[in-house]
Amino acid sequence: MRFIKHFWPLFAALALLYVFNRSWGMVPPLGKVFSPFEGFLQHAVAGHSRQDEEILLKGIAEEVTVYYDDNAVPHIFAQNDADLYFAQGYVIARDRLWQMEFYTLVASGRLSEVVGGAALAYDRFNRRIGMARSAATIAEKLKADTLANRMLEAYAAGVNAYIEQLTYRDLPVEYKLLNYSPERWTPYKSILMLMNMRNTLNGGSYDYGLTKVLARYGADVVANLFPDYPALESPAIPEGTEWEFSPVPRPVVPERVTALPDSDLLSFYMPAPRPEIGSNNWAVSGTKSATGLPILANDPHLQLTLPSIWYQMQLAAPGVNVYGVALPGTPNIIIGFNKDIAWGVTNLGPDVMDFYRIQFRDSTFREYRHDGQWKPATRHIETFSLKGGRTVYDTLYYTHHGPVVYHKADPTNTDRVPPGYAMRWVTNETDDSDMLAFYYLNRGTDYDDYREALGYFTAPAQNFVFSSNGGDIALAAAGKLPLKWKGQGKYLLDGTLASHDWQGWIPKEQNPAVRNPSRGFVSSANQSPTDTTYPYYLDWRFAHPARAIRINERLEAMTDATADSLRALQNDNYNVDARRVLPRLMKALAAADSIRRSAEFDAVERWNRRNDADAVGAAIFESWLDNLMAAIWEDEFPRDDDFLFPSLDRTFELINNEPDAPWFDNVNTPDTVETLDDIIRESFNITVKHMRERLGDISARTWALGKVKGTRIMHLVPNFRSFGRIGVNNGGGSSVVNATSRTNGPSWRMVVQLDKEWPVAYGLYPGGQSGNPGSRYYDNMIDRWAQGELDTLLFMKRADEPSDRLQRRMALKPTK
Amino acid sequence: MLFVLIVVIAGLLAVVGPWWTIAPVCFAVCWWKSTSASQAFWTPAMAGITLWMGYALYLHFNSGVDLATKVAGIFTAGVPALAAVPGIVLVLIIAVLVVGPVSGFAGLAGLAVRRFLNAPASP
């Protein structure tokens, strides 16, 4: 009794220490996290330090100098390549370590290790599409490539040098809140970062949706409603460009072009390519510019996140001095410029993901039928170690096409891929090295260097825009493009037929490309890469051409272009779709008195067809267009049932030129035959009704596009809502050049004015250099981005060049 | 005296050690200096609270960004009643609820264990 009387406070204290030192479910260790001495308040930084520092590091050969400028952009000056990539890894890790590792956990299907079972289905899907396995193979192969291996190893060593310095109090705040710590970095993880990009840009498919259409309506309807080329297009490679090569033999279209899904296989669903993942790039030649030399612009559109996907930096060492944005976790500059050249990317969007119906011999899944023989499938066991200790296993079968994404109906499969469909996907190609393409671009000085660099690129296929101070402008598609018969992979394919296999690759030098076209500019906006004369089949559907049409119209008309002309074009809000379809739509509305007298009609009627932030007409039109598409197509092509809608382009053609098409009738109302005008009016009324319910009566403030759209830039962890920014007020839309929607938009805007002496460049992205939500450099560029402004980029000639924008110096010194 | 000793020693140790170093400090100082159970609980509790609150407020008001509100927002998501409370207040409440009891019971434990060892073997 006496013992208990005297010792219970000790036990109470120890119990409290235990309780507060560990996490409970999603509640982090409260003692650690809320102690101001080592918890998250350590990240509430007082501002940008101006203190110079010296850091001793093991792993570098010579001293590296890093200057931070007034936007927290590091300018790294190293004395050899290995030190340069070491320093790049070290410096990025200081700002973005948590984010880098998070992406690798996503790509390798390991998120459930840090967030628990809630992410298991997502992880299983990511494992089953094979990214981690392919990344491991690529990393293994690159060990044989001295250059790539040295670069990746140096980068990893730099990241690890930072990780080794970390104590709990320095850990990025997300680690504290989710209660885990960083693992060592490896070259494999840098490859995983690139796999993530491949998945983002190439990880979608229309195959199932279109196969459903084919099965229900037949080939004639597909040919009519889902044509291989839009009615209105302005292709990336200018129409009429000669193909200066002799094409290799193209595979012949086989008798059977699809394996229709079995009636019980209704559960297939791969995400469709997301139209909001697109990009713009262009370059004007000296004949169009005020300086007499090319100017280049690029703005890749991605999901807007915090921390930002991009990180600005300058990398300099003997033989290289380059500025631009890097992907946290990978060496080199991805989009940028050096003294002589500039380059940028947009997604090409070819069909590089196909599905094959696999006929297994039996339910052991050991053998499958192909080309008249039974062939062995390879089996892999995937292990998932969930946070909290539970382990889950999953069996994965590979055919020669690639992984069988799901081999039987699976209740936990939220992405609903068909049982027994194997996937051939360019993301799982393991040769060449995208990294080397960027390595050589970073060091390029002219057109030949650029073309040679692109030869190393595999995926995701991109339109690389290029300009040089030698006066060249160019656009070239880089990446491996499968050699297909016309229409191959439009539908689900038959895995038993050898003729359905991918038939090799288009020779890379025959990828669509153009140099110095007579019109004086090159551009791309994810539209059809070429006109219909290109000898190879790439895909039947590319991004809606509205952005491309507008960009090319404006560039065509542009003379004496300056960097600011191109900046203005990046922010162009003109709505080409409205110009194309609104006159016909308004005619139908005007015929109805009740609508014609409404304030909403008036707002659209008076709208100047620009998606400006304050435009009420734009807000109505954007919402109306969605409702109009649904009103026309939902009855015959129900999206809930995984049918694909015809494109905007085809729909506009029907509205303007085929008003009597049977598709306008709503088949769900057998007693009445709706006309085009009925559908237009009904969809407008529904739009107005919904907007009134949501926003109250029409007013210039509450119905303005910027308010209705409500652009948001959220943190990568969905639960960390308060780490994001909501209600960013800006214009734009997915079909205008300023492609800012609610959640997606220009993730980096760059304009580079080439110069014989030294280029002048501008750039900005919707976020900030720091990944720390407690830093003012976490989101300091967002407001200027929303306004369409660009920063003048500080591109230093040499390490000792003075600039009043430099705020502090960090010297990395080798330990003796 | 007790109060000042804890604040100074625990403050110095907190700069280099983990968050729980405050507990052994309270335990030892109370073993050494405390005279009553009430003092051995409340003085270290208040010292711990002063130390954590003081440093938290210092960090908060010297920072250019209100990180406390961002972090508090994660925990109060879905509780609209708390949305109006400044983040730093919620953060301080949790910090107080952690450090107060830990320091208090550690201090009380110091006194109690001393009394156990120093007491005559049996009355």
UniProtKB/TrEMBL annotation, chain A:
Pfam families: Penicil_amidase (PF01804). Keywords: Calcium, Hydrolase, Metal-binding, Zymogen. One of its GO terms (biological process) is antibiotic biosynthetic process. InterPro entries: Ntn_hydrolases_N (IPR029055), Pen/GL7ACA/AHL_acylase (IPR014395), Penicillin_amidase_A-knob (IPR043147), Penicillin_amidase_dom1 (IPR023343), Penicillin_amidase_N_B-knob (IPR043146), S45 (IPR002692). Binds 1 Ca(2+) ion per dimer. Ca(2+) binds at residues 351, 354. The active site is at residue 279. GO terms for molecular function: hydrolase activity, acting on carbon-nitrogen (but not peptide) bonds, in linear amides; metal ion binding. Its cofactor is Ca(2+). The keyword Metal-binding applies. PANTHER family: ACYL-HOMOSERINE LACTONE ACYLASE QUIP (PTHR34218:SF4), PEPTIDASE S45 PENICILLIN AMIDASE (PTHR34218). Belongs to the peptidase S45 family. This is Penicillin amidase.
From TrEMBL, chain B:
This is Uncharacterized protein. The lineage of its organism: Bacteria, Pseudomonadati, Bacteroidota, Sphingobacteriia, Sphingobacteriales. The chain crosses the membrane at residues 6-29, 41-61, 81-113. The keyword Membrane applies. Keywords: Membrane, Transmembrane, Transmembrane helix. It comes from Parapedobacter luteus. It comes from the Bacteria.
